[in-house]
Amino acid sequence: MMGPYQKQTPLEKQRTIIIATIDYLISQQSGSIVFDDFDPVKFHFEQERTKTEKYFAQRRLDKLEQILAKLIKGLQHRIDLKFAHYIKTETGYDIDIFEDLRARAIETISKKEISNQQELNDISLMIHYQQEVSEDKKSAEQLFSLISAYRESIGFKRNKNNRTEVITATEKGEIIELKAVISNGPKPKLLEEDENISPDGKRKITVTRWSDVENASTYVLITFPTASGVIYGLNGIFEGVTAYWKDNYHIIIETKENYEANTKYSQVSSFDDVIKISYIEH
């Protein structure tokens, strides 16, 4: 561990914090979903490690700052209050990943209104942050009132070419998020979804056939309590693809022998929850 008395250049400091952050994220998140022997979460963070070393060698402090900002975004949304202690222990450096969030939220509060999606996201996240660090309900109520006012202001901004959907999430242990989804143009040309829940009710598989003007796909998605991913996929719309549970830990996918899959796994897991996948090809 580096002591705080040891001097590093800003470039070296940034690299040190990023590498420690990547190690932390891998320890916290790897295994959340694994396809056969491929862990996409760990693979992603190892790619970030490789990019970090490349930019460090190129002496690109700006690029390293961008990597760190991207890495800590997920920690902010989970309101990870242990991360700062980990970085202090491993590197000797102090880091406050909520400093910028607090500053942006204060600016929005001072003008007494939410003006855009970014400010909405900040205030929503700030509510969750305050619930974790403070018992002051009055501050949270003030932030909720800003969200309510913004929801009302966008709720009636509709025209025949735009669709506005307002989505709210509950406070119970989740990030409180209010999102305005504004979509220009037509809905997908085709969207069919067939869901099948495991016997114990803990997991779900969904067969989706989707297309718009330019793209089309057929795929089977598995949803665990904390992660989801495609376990079988085809380019295009294909009939005759079904998926169901043989038992809690075994999925059967029925398809056709002449279908060429772009994704096809025989096992998927989320931490200790391991699911076998078998195929029946007609």
Describe this structure in words.
With 282 residues, the protein is of the alpha+beta class. The chain has 7 helices and 12 strands. It folds into 3 domains: 10-91, no CATH class; 99-184, no CATH class; 190-281. It has helices spanning 10-29, 40-57, 61-77, 83-91, 99-111, 117-133, 137-155; strands spanning 34-35, 162-168, 178-184, 190-197, 204-211, 216-223, 228-235, 242-247, 250-255, 263-264, 267-270, 273-281. The strands form 3 sheets. It has a 5-stranded mixed sheet, with no helix packed on it. Strands 4-5-6-7-10 form a 5-stranded antiparallel sheet, with no helix packed on it. A two-stranded antiparallel sheet has the order 2-3.
Write the SSE topology.
Elements: H1 10-29, E1 34-35, H2 40-57, H3 61-77, H4 83-91, H5 99-111, H6 117-133, H7 137-155, E2 162-168, E3 178-184, E4 190-197, E5 204-211, E6 216-223, E7 228-235, E8 242-247, E9 250-255, E10 263-264, E11 267-270, E12 273-281
Parallel strand pairs: 9-12
Antiparallel strand pairs: 1-11, 2-3, 4-5, 5-6, 6-7, 7-10, 8-9, 11-12
